[in-house]
């Protein structure tokens, strides 16, 4: 069943009679529950033009769970852009470009994309929603805020073995939450290196800025796997971390940028979903990366 267009902003525009949140008329809102699927589809088809006329900033897309999964799969297999998760200043990117060898699998409730330098997993429940902000622009996936909250820390924290690793071979490696202090995402490093595990454990409980001062070069030199995740998305980046003065390699990579982290944002304000939702992943079409 196709979900309701409601985004929690329930106010009618006096001039057009259309809701400033979803674009429906009062009659369409009142009759929604009793409408057939065909009638709902017909209403959905009118909403983009209505919302554009109202200059509405964000638009909820009508996709069912299966349609969303198929769209995500197509973005990867057709090499149409880049998937990201994380927060401003602490983000992982999984590019879907023609020169990259990527295998896509559906495993139970998850879509998993594997490349030599990274893996990307998206768990798609029937609560995941897609939001658009402009024609041909980024698509933000979100969950209700209560479902989007993730266990995270504001200091470096040992999480033990990475039991939620995408592939079984990595489940015994040790995972450390860097402690960026966000509600909806966390930036972690994962390693089987004894020396790095010891150094990270010795600095547990410290703010990430202090950790970087103490063992930053050791972390860079060891180049552990970076694991950036939300309640629905996880990107594991295996590519080498560039040392100071080196460029990031082409392909999957992470950004850990102290100046951006100071802002405390969960997502850039221009891509913030409606108040009832929180971001879990963002897709940037190729056209925006050129």
Q: Provide the number of structural domains.
A: 2
Radius of gyration (Å): 21 Å
Tally of strands: 15
Helix residue percentage: 10-25%
Output the helix-strand order: HHEHEEEEEEEHEEEHHEEEHEH
Strand content: 25-35%
- Please state the structural category: alpha+beta
Described by strand count, sense and barrel closure, the largest sheet is: 8 strands, antiparallel
Shape: elongated
- pLDDT average, as an integer? 95
Give the termini separation: 37 Å
Spatial ordering of strands, largest sheet: 4-5-6-13-12-11-10-9
- What's the total helix number? 8
Low-pLDDT windows of residues: none
Question: What does this entry look like structurally?
Answer:
- The chain is of the alpha+beta class and 290 residues long.
- It folds into two domains: 1-56, no CATH class; 60-290, no CATH class.
- Helices cover 25% and strands 28% of the residues.
- The chain has eight helices and 15 strands.
- It has an eight-stranded antiparallel beta sheet. Strands 1-7-8-15-2-3-14 form a seven-stranded antiparallel beta sheet.
- It is elongated, with a radius of gyration of 21 Å.
- The two termini are 37 Å apart.
- The relative contact order is 0.17.
- The mean pLDDT is 95.
């Amino acid at each position: 069943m196709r979900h309701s267009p409601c985004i929690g902003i329930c106010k009618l525009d006096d001039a057009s009679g259309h809701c400033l949140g979803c674009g429906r008329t009062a009659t369409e809102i009142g009759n929604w529950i009793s409408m057939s699927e065909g009638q709902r589809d017909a209403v959905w088809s009118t909403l983009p033009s209505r919302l554009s006329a109202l200059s509405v900033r964000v638009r909820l897309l009508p996709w069912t769970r299966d349609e969303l999964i198929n769209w995500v799969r197509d973005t990867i297999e057709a090499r149409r852009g880049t998937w990201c998760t994380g927060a401003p200043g602490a983000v992982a990117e999984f590019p879907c470009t023609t020169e990259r060898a990527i295998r896509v699998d559906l495993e139970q409730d998850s879509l998993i994309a594997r490349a030599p330098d990274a893996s990307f997993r998206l768990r798609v429940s029937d609560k995941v929603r897609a939001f658009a902000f402009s024609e041909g622009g980024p698509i933000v996936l979100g969950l209700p805020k209560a479902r989007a909250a993730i266990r995270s820390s504001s200091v470096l924290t040992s999480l033990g073995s990475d039991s939620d690793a995408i592939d079984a071979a990595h489940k015994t490696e040790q995972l450390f939450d860097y402690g960026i202090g966000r509600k909806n995402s966390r930036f972690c490093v994962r390693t089987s290196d004894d020396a790095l595990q010891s150094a990270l454990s010795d600095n547990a409980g410290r703010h990430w800025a202090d950790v970087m001062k103490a063992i930053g070069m050791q972390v860079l030199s060891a180049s552990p796997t970076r694991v950036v995740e939300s309640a629905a998305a996880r990107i594991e980046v295996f590519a080498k971390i560039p040392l100071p003065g080196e460029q990031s390699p082409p392909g999957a990579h992470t950004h850990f940028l102290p100046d951006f982290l100071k802002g405390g944002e969960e997502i850039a304000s221009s891509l913030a979903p409606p108040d009832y939702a929180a971001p879990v992943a963002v897709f940037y079409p190729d056209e925006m990366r050129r």
